[in-house]
């Protein structure tokens, strides 16, 4: 049986950040990825927004790791030349929604995230096409090229000795006194590791169920939630990210810009039974209605189906959002094992901080 110090399951942005951190600390690290290429899960199917950290309950892992990860992500991008832009974001409210905006402002303040209030007159100067009663401006929000970021993480991990192996789906995990044995692609275990990090995104609960003898009550249920995007034909009407107030299950159908300045709207919230990334063109009607609440000039026929992502969600549609779960042996008793569950948004923003958190929890 071959042996290696550490294995990371999943080469999404979080798995790559963890592998980089382990490699930088001198750990011999192998990344096992089921897909033919890294970063083809949620990490390449999201809004690419660097979140400021204003939505999450004060003291939660989501709040703490988003804020720490945001600062580290900006620094990482600046140092390594990863394309990104701190263009700021407006959270807009109609007249009846201003109390919600006030609650968001208080929540952000409690977590130490700076925001400024803008009234309708100030907004007309900043973004003349925007229709709303008031808005919060988040200057720390921005966008990042998620692919370039992942390439930079992988390059740094590899330059410190980590190895990525694609088309390698982990299918067996057997903890024992001499380490954890791993089987890939249906074959019997052929690899023994001292440290195993389950960073399989939406599949993390399924991977945890593979761990022989692992207490099933410690594995959350996955509640798959699809987010669809539509892109805008023609020039972007705004220079900043535009978000409505959050809706149950999501942040609301917002406008994001990519680094080339193209606009797209999404994601909506569609509970699904399986991972299917097609976008139903029929959903455009609800997009037109949602977007016209803050951009009435949106022309009929201007939206076209773009792409979809699946959130690694571990709570049911009507439940309160669950926090990130980063769980080591003190939680579940399996030496050397860390599971990451519920790494939905802001997982891209938080990835570097999530990596440090995961490595700190390895026994
Ligand atoms: C619609 C949407 C919008 C989002 N917008 C934002 C945003 O704007 N900003 C932000 O900060 N965050 C955002 N997020 C969240 C962010 O994209 C995720 O938190 C992040 O990408 C999670 O990375 P990951 O590495 O945990 O998962 P993934 O990228 O899903 O990677 C997991 C990997 O594990 C692999 N895998 C699974 N099972 C196995 C196995 N058995 N063996 C080997 N490999 C396996 C998969 O193939 C996959 O490559 C969004 C998410 C979604 C879905």
Q: What does this molecule look like?
A:
With 363 residues, the chain is of the alpha+beta class. The chain folds into 2 domains: 161 residues, FAD/NAD(P)-binding domain (3-Layer(bba) Sandwich), CATH 3.50.50.60; 140 residues, D-Amino Acid Oxidase, Chain A, domain 2, CATH 3.30.9.10. Strand 15 and strand 16 form a beta hairpin. The two termini are 23 Å apart. The mean pLDDT is 96. Bound molecules: flavin-adenine dinucleotide. The site of flavin-adenine dinucleotide has 41 residues, from helix 1, strand 18 and helix 9.
Give the helices and strands, then pairings:
Layout: E1 2-9, H1 13-24, E2 29-32, E3 49-50, H2 61-80, E4 84-85, E5 89-93, H3 98-110, E6 116-119, H4 120-126, E7 134-138, E8 142-144, H5 146-159, E9 163-165, E10 170-176, E11 179-184, E12 191-198, H6 204-210, E13 225-232, E14 241-243, E15 254-257, E16 263-266, E17 270-271, H7 284-292, E18 303-311, E19 325-327, H8 329-332, E20 337-341, H9 347-360
Parallel strand pairs: 1-2, 1-12, 2-9, 5-14, 12-20
Antiparallel strand pairs: 3-8, 4-8, 5-7, 6-7, 10-11, 11-12, 13-16, 13-17, 13-18, 15-16, 19-20
Helix pairs in contact: 1-5, 1-9, 2-9
Bound molecules: flavin-adenine dinucleotide (FAD).
Strand content: 25-35%
- The structural domain count equals 2
Tell me, rounded to a whole number, the average pLDDT. 96
Report the C-alpha radius of gyration, rounded: 21 Å
- Helix count from the secondary structure assignment: 9
Approximate helicity band: 25-40%
Based on the coordinates given, report the CATH architecture of the largest domain.
3-Layer(bba) Sandwich
Question: Which structural class do the helices and strands define?
Answer: alpha+beta
Largest sheet: 8 strands, mixed
N-to-C CA distance: 23 Å
Looking at how many chains there are and whether they match, the oligomeric state comes to single chain
Shape: elongated
CATH class of the largest domain: Alpha Beta
Give the ordered list of helices and strands. Answer: EHEEHEEHEHEEHEEEEHEEEEEHEEHEH
Q: What's the CATH H-level homologous superfamily of the largest domain?
A: FAD/NAD(P)-binding domain
What small molecules does the structure contain?
Answer: flavin-adenine dinucleotide
CATH topology of the largest domain: FAD/NAD(P)-binding domain
